[in-house]
Automatic annotation (TrEMBL):
<keyword id="KW-0812">Transmembrane</keyword>
<keyword id="KW-0472">Membrane</keyword>
<dbReference type="InterPro" id="IPR021438">
    <property type="entry name" value="DUF3087"/>
</dbReference>
<dbReference type="Pfam" id="PF11286">
    <property type="entry name" value="DUF3087"/>
</dbReference>
<feature type="transmembrane region" description="Helical">
    <location>
        <begin position="18"/>
        <end position="42"/>
    </location>
</feature>
<protein>
    <submittedName>
        <fullName>DUF3087 domain-containing protein</fullName>
    </submittedName>
</protein>
<feature type="transmembrane region" description="Helical">
    <location>
        <begin position="48"/>
        <end position="67"/>
    </location>
</feature>
<keyword id="KW-1133">Transmembrane helix</keyword>
Amino acid sequence: MQLIEINKARYRKHLNRVIAGCGIGLAVGSLAISQTLIALFPDESGSHFHWNLIGVAITSVGLAWLLNKYRTHSFMTEVVYVWELKKALNKITRKMAKLKAAGREGNADALLAIHYSYAGSRLLWLLDDNLITMDDLAIKQAELESVAAQYNVTLNVEDYDASILKQF
């Protein structure tokens, strides 16, 4: 997955609309389904927890289906890209201890994966205005570049491929 520049204003606007739509859809859908089930199958004890739970579950599945169906729509381009980037970074994060150990030994693939993780994190944090941790990221990036220079490894984000994680 290549890192690309995202229009921050468009991304935030579309993400907020997707979140609001999902929230409203979940509230309306689950209430409509659960109230319909309660009307059709009333419980004499007055407990309708299971109907409410079924309403939430059905609506959640429906929203997931809709999001998946429209993930290729132009409105969702930036939102889906960020979701996919977060998924890719999460895969790296789960293997970060092994990657750092291999990187200290000069493994070029490990260093490249860590470099991609730092560059992707920087992109996400800028999109989300999470500037507090940028100084820590800059320090880690400098340490990574020092190790890469020590082993004469050139790091280029475009060279990253998720398949290199399989060896760790």
